[in-house]
Design brief:
There is one protein chain. With about 130 residues, the protein is an all-alpha fold. It has a single domain, classed as Four Helix Bundle (Hemerythrin (Met), subunit A) (Up-down Bundle). It contains 4 helices and no strands. α1 packs parallel to α3 and α2 packs antiparallel against α3. The longest helix is centred in the middle third of the chain and has 29 residues. The model has no long low-confidence stretch (mean pLDDT about 95).
Length: about 130
């Protein structure tokens, strides 16, 4: 089986993953931290940017791969992939230590919930 849709989204998401990792790792190195945030709020924020990315992206990509492997229509996979990508781009800009209600945080979380539900439905429909 050849996967043609999921990789279109996995590649740019992997690039975002690396950017967030480099930002986290770079600050960790500058602060001489091996683990944790050392009580530094900016370090904690970068850890959460990266962690939140991993938490959402992994599950949605797994569901997309399953749905694509089961023959889900490409349109639905593109919807999930686009929502996930938009959400993962927006979320780090909206996750602020001083503003829990930043609009881009809502965009990030909302699009990722929609992407997850869409891929769950695609997978479930292909089980029948």
């Amino acid at each position: 089986m050849t996967f043609t849709v999921t990789p279109l989204y996995a590649l740019p998401l992997a690039a975002i993953f690396l950017v967030l990792w480099f930002r986290t790792s770079g600050m960790r190195s500058a602060l001489s931290l091996s683990i944790g945030d050392g009580g530094n709020a900016d370090m904690l924020l970068r850890i959460r940017h990266h962690g939140n990315f991993v938490e959402w992206t992994t599950m949605v990509l797994i569901l997309m791969i399953l749905a694509e492997g089961m023959g889900a229509p490409a349109m639905y996979l593109h919807i999930s992939g686009a929502l996930l990508l938009i959400g993962r781009i927006a979320h780090p800009f909206g996750l602020k230590k001083d503003n829990a209600a930043h609009p881009l945080r809502y965009v990030g979380n909302g699009t990722n919930i929609l992407a997850t539900v869409n891929t769950m439905v695609c997978t479930a429909m292909n089980l029948l």
